Amino acid sequence: MKLGVNLLCVGGLIEAAHLEHCRLAAQEGYDGVEIPVLDGSPEHYGWLGAQLDAMGLERTCTAIVPDPGADPTSANPTIRARGIAHLDWILDCATALGAQTIGGPFHAPIGHFTGSGPTMDEWQRGAEAHHLMAEKAAERGILLALEPLNRFETHFLNTAEQAAHYCEMVDHPAFGIMYDTFHSHIEEKDQASAIRVLAGRINVLHVSENDRGVPGTGQIDFPSVFSAVKATGFDGWVVMEAFGAGVPEIAAATRIWRPMFEDHPTLFRDSARFIREAWERA
């Protein structure tokens, strides 16, 4: 596996001031960093990619649908077109960055609900948009890893069973799932069983504790998760994701109002040590 750290714990747009955290990741033995692609331009991500190359860090990235006005699943043709254009922007930024995967909930706007579960029409429109995105991603050597979220953040994709069915609808080898242990801790009866449902479809594993703090300090049974993931043959990116109150725009989005870890050096060090040791034992 390759070990990464999601940099949403330091900011929503990674700039020069955040490069010290990238250097910290390299010092702690991470293979790469996961860059949030929420804002900025391809030119910015090209600059950032060059900085990370100099540090010997590979990268993945994560992205979202920013608002209901750019929803690729919308029944409104104008909104859907804006949504597909946004997916193209994500691809352009990821390409400039040199990202190997694009993960995250780039399906429907976070926190936007219809009052019911997803309809087949919504899924069909989404699958068409994501199939087109996967075709373009494959041409650039990028894998997609769409992230199901818990029911309090989206109605579009919540469970492993839904995600497996959606993969069948998208039907493209460059398209898969980002499995996140935090969201699955809420939605699944048993994480090992959920992982087996997604066998062969997980392109990125997000290691996130139940309180979104340091992995291994909470309720999630990571040895069971890692054993189940390894049993599927997965050997890709394993990315630590944690959040805290120190980044106001991220704290507001994740509803985290108190510190979840002592400091970034402690978070990076303890997480890397725990994940590598638990992965080896699994």
Summarize this structure as a short list of keywords or feature phrases:
globular, alpha/beta, 8 strands, eight-stranded parallel beta barrel, about 45% helix, 10 helices
Q: Distance between termini?
A: 13 Å
Helical coverage, percent range: 40-55%
Q: What fold name goes in the CATH topology slot?
A: TIM Barrel
| Total number of beta strands | 8
Lateral arrangement of strands in the main beta sheet: 1-2-3-4-5-6-7-8
Q: Mean pLDDT across all residues, rounded?
A: 95
> Structural class, from helix and strand content?
alpha/beta
| Main pleated-sheet profile | 8 strands, parallel, barrel
CATH arch. level architecture:
Alpha-Beta Barrel
Describe the 3D structure:
It is a single chain. The protein is of the alpha/beta class. The chain is built from ten helices and eight strands. The model has no long low-confidence stretch (mean pLDDT 95). The relative contact order is 0.14. An eight-stranded parallel beta barrel has the order 1-2-3-4-5-6-7-8, surrounded by seven helices. The longest helix is centred in the first third of the chain and has 21 residues, at 77-97.
Summarize the SSE layout with pairings:
Elements: E1 2-6, H1 19-27, E2 32-37, H2 42-55, E3 58-63, H3 77-97, E4 101-104, H4 120-139, E5 143-146, H5 160-170, E6 175-180, H6 181-187, H7 191-197, E7 202-207, H8 222-231, E8 237-240, H9 248-254, H10 264-281
Parallel strand pairs: 1-2, 1-8, 2-3, 3-4, 4-5, 5-6, 6-7, 7-8
Helix pairs in contact: 2-3, 3-4, 4-5, 7-8
